[in-house]
Amino acid sequence: MNSFQPTAERQSVLENKSSSEVKSKSVSQINGHRARQDFSSVYNRDLLPAESGEEVTKNFLLELLDILFSYICKSFKRSSKVLDFHHAHQLKDGLDGFTLALPDEPENLEQLLVDCRDTLKYGIKTGHPRFFNQLSSGLDIIGLAGEWLTSTANTNMFTYEVAPVFILMEEVLLRNMMSMIGWPEEEGDGLFCPGGSVSNLNSMLLARYHFFPEVKKKGMAALPKLAILTSSHSHYSVQKSAAVLGIGIDNVLLVKCDERGKMIPAELESSIITAKGAGLVPFYVNATAGTTVYGAFDPLNDIADICQRHGLWMHVDASWGGGLLMSKRHSAKLNGIHRASSVTWNPHKMMGVPLQCSAILVRTKGILQECNQLRAAYLFQPDKHYDISYDTGDKTLQCGRHVDVFKFWLMWKAKGSTGFEAQINRCLDNAEYLYDKLQGRADFQLVFKSKPEHSNVCFWYLPDSVRNLQVGPERNNKLHTVAPKIKGKMMKEGLTMIGYQPLGDKVNFFRCVFSNPATQREDVDFLLDEIARLGSDL
Amino acid sequence: MNSFQPTAERQSVLENKSSSEVKSKSVSQINGHRARQDFSSVYNRDLLPAESGEEVTKNFLLELLDILFSYICKSFKRSSKVLDFHHAHQLKDGLDGFTLALPDEPENLEQLLVDCRDTLKYGIKTGHPRFFNQLSSGLDIIGLAGEWLTSTANTNMFTYEVAPVFILMEEVLLRNMMSMIGWPEEEGDGLFCPGGSVSNLNSMLLARYHFFPEVKKKGMAALPKLAILTSSHSHYSVQKSAAVLGIGIDNVLLVKCDERGKMIPAELESSIITAKGAGLVPFYVNATAGTTVYGAFDPLNDIADICQRHGLWMHVDASWGGGLLMSKRHSAKLNGIHRASSVTWNPHKMMGVPLQCSAILVRTKGILQECNQLRAAYLFQPDKHYDISYDTGDKTLQCGRHVDVFKFWLMWKAKGSTGFEAQINRCLDNAEYLYDKLQGRADFQLVFKSKPEHSNVCFWYLPDSVRNLQVGPERNNKLHTVAPKIKGKMMKEGLTMIGYQPLGDKVNFFRCVFSNPATQREDVDFLLDEIARLGSDL
């Protein structure tokens, strides 16, 4: 017997009726047991901590759960849309009573519940099995439960004092990740950061401090002219970090890649030598394990050899590829990662942890603390009654730090390492399936021939009007417009979502990525058919 | 009639029994209507997207809600503890079956629910009316609802494409905040960042780019030796930002404050002149609106005059004080803030928004984009079918960005501007009440005499053993040990929490701050009595 399932009648209200219609329906039944409370004369002030606010709070949270659960179910249903697209001006003008403007006087809780429904209605179902648009996708129920608990605990990672359990969970998670990387038990440290870009920024900051500790006090004025090296396919956060740190993006030397998007080691070494000859001091090499567009893995061992030879810091940006370390079948693609000085790894990408969850891992113990600490007396009192080595807040660029670990910890408990492995293998199987299908279709063309290493598959759709043209600039110009036009139509129809981009001399092509365990082969079939349906007459 | 309230029997199970006892109780009744599902042979794989996983998912989320709601109710109950302190080694050894270690094989959902209970049990109730330890406190039900919805939507702020509603909400919130600051409608831009430190870092980055746009490409090597100015009472993130940007903390000139903790304008001007004389190029002044320890407001108009005279960027760190702009009674303390070039304002502090919620606001339109953009083609395609000015992702240091706006937007709807005003006034009233009480007690001493400007009240507790000593080094040494000893005992007893620190020549003192609307005068009375009870025999 359950008390929560909405009745068919209520379900239809929730899904199909406009805001005002829902508002007028002030009483409804949840499975006949619970009379739905009318919240139209109930306000924020009636909720806890108001005296006798427990009942109202409970009923309000149950209503909210009703809305969220209905959304969750729809997210997984292939018959529901991925999105219901509206232009910004439409949403700003107000649709069916959904207004973004902020009031002077409180609105009632009924209106707030309607706003919650509308917010979800006009948003994007990133957990939908046919959402292929981003490296992060899926909706993990355990991860979600973890986030709900995290926000209920509403605390901060700066000290053991206010986050004892979460601080210890962070330690356990980092230790497990470092062990997957292959660092020995007595080495390594790390932190969860607000996204891979901040993790990468941290790595460059640590490397600079490692070679030039005087920079913390004296600034870049005391240093020679630095250079860093990264591949032309690497993530733009490497350049962003160089801009922030005052190294300058002109001093980020982009190393050539092969056709597959992998850094060419010989090119790296010659770039290093050239840079030195030009009076620059290279100190940091970023290798990518899983590039954003091609999903390529740089040859880590070769790069490590070069870094060793020249005494450089080797960072591995495994934001996207780190998850493959969980899979016996795929982890060899990251061979050599244990030789890195630092690693970025985002469980919110390939491991399906809800956003945000990104770790910076660094091999040298103590350097995070030394590089970043400022010993603010009001947070990090040395005369506390407990072991202050757990006050991790002084290791970060931040002060307050969101708790990003609990959801990941809970998911690991729920799946085990073997569960993550199976989930990742399934995503990569989907990529191979797509790759095989594309090879069998004349109206699609792969951007590069080799089998996917990660779950990225890059391809063009070729409408007849393109296929009938000879290879050359005219064909390229025409082809360049195909993906954006299909994407525009696709978003208006709302049945699936996939990204596109140009890269180097390649005109706009689609990039499909798989990180959602809900996606199955039928969804891959659907994607191709949908692209062909939307694009055939272009 | 309700279906969710736990029975008295179950309540006692949830609150008092150890993990193993709870586990053995596999069936329980929620108010007699819903038979509790036994999850001990149910696993993650049985949840959505598993076929026919809806029922299990619903029941699991209801169980979770049960746990969270029980915690929420306890958070507001004065009879419950703020914390149940354990040392790290105790938690790591495993308490009552609560183990942090991560398994290879999946654990069942019953165990996960127990883990959720235990995580909350050993954590800190930051929403408790007697938690005074941090600038962020309280547990706002609407904010919490907002966070739950945000994590269910699980999307990313980088493009309009994947976060249309949230991108527009961000715009509306920033516009409202800028209007409270007093910037005209046609000026201003901003972003929500992962905490005040990152917001402050952003402001310094923008200022550097404003004066020296070549830094983005060429790095600091192309620039003169920069200096920045901030008060000795300002937040340590100013120094941290200078370290990150390669300016160096030696080039952060700390301006003297008066007894009350406010920057002395004449000292600022003479520091600027001295710096210039020493060949430095000052370009950025950080003024604080609400310092961390004293809650002091720097004289913004005087500082703005000086910045104008010397052509410097004026940043106002109103992380803590920004909330006072919502109050007609208190906003005058920030007079002059409209003259700032940039402002940091953390709604997760004084406005009670759940962590994290911090905004950087900048007066010059377009500079965020120019300074930070790198035009990654795979995210920010120029040939999209919608208005790409809403793709805000290229304005940030980050790539992916957590959705921090929805909870704030929903709270504003629920309270209205007037509700925030009342909430903030109440917190400041509590501070005045504490201030008045302290003046009437011989066993306490204020750190400075003047009335609180923000909700910070700083004081020493004076046990007899200290009061009997003459003012001098011996008394100071003794007094320095009092607060840490009381804090240690206080955490073990767990009935309340307050922070302490030394500052300049002042030995360890307590800092009480009020940002929790649940706190009432009786809690202030309790705090003082508890300190005296724990400290009288020291």
TrEMBL record, chains A, B:
SUPFAM superfamilies: PLP-dependent transferases. Pfam families: Pyridoxal_deC. GO terms for molecular function: carboxy-lyase activity. Keywords: Decarboxylase, Lyase, Pyridoxal phosphate. Its cofactor is pyridoxal 5'-phosphate. Residues 1-33 are annotated as: Disordered. Residues 1-10 have a biased composition (Polar residues). PROSITE patterns: DDC_GAD_HDC_YDC (PS00392). Homodimer. Belongs to the group II decarboxylase family. This is Glutamate decarboxylase. The lineage of its organism: Eukaryota, Metazoa, Chordata, Craniata, Vertebrata.
